[in-house]
Amino acid sequence: MEIDKAIRECDDGRLKTKYNNAIYVIRRALALYSVQEVALSFNGGKDSTVLLHLLRAGCFLHEAEENNSGGDAADGGKTFPIRTIYFESQSAFPEINSFTYEAAATYNIQMDIIRLDFKSGLEALLKANPIRAIFLGVRIGDPTAVGQEQFSPSSPGWPPFMRVNPILDWSYRFGYTLYATHTHAI
Question: What is the pTM of this model?
């Protein structure tokens, strides 16, 4: 996978460490839960987009390890295996919706579009699907990150699922560096 190769070859040791830690969290989640039991909450924002690419690399590496292929082959344009959910909002900028749909087409993402508020949408999603964990692009400093760890159960009063936060310890700088420096690999 190109992004993994680009990160391994880059000179930024701190970015490599952040990347490796995020990939570890992703691979750990994929070891704990089946692909059918996880989802990605994608909103088209920068953090969410960074997470999408990390998750693509993590899935590829996880699959390569399971198939003993060493992780050196290209992903071949396969459909992204993780259920991806998008909470579409009438108040979102049209550019956000356009970018989200373009990303889905570009990266072969089968996206579930939810047109309910977040809590009601999650309730419906979890009732209809065997999802037990959701990857989120939450970073320390985000209002929703308070008290969270890389694996954190949902809050009381919310539908039960495990929040998986691979970029929780990333700063804006690391997300921007990955996104800006390695877009050719993404």
Answer: 0.88
